[in-house]
């Protein structure tokens, strides 16, 4: 018999706070408020089954969001292209996808200004 430990409500809340951090702290550096609002309306990065994740699974989701956030913050504070993070970024988006969390971006989406509503005046992510 195999015992699986369920995730705690605190861990589920923490994942939701990591998602909110991306919307509130990180995305404004790259996208306009209007574009971010559209992303929220599309319900991107919603975690529909957090309560059903095991302890191991919620830790994997948590680490994926933390890694993506860290890479984007580093990218936002650097004028150089950070190609060495592309594989790590992609791996973590696949982890989110595995748990039905829609994160439709690739790192290149944050490196180029191909969105019509991208913010052009950059501010520091570390205020």
From TrEMBL:
Pfam families: DUF5365. InterPro entries: Uncharacterised_YhcU. This is DUF5365 family protein.
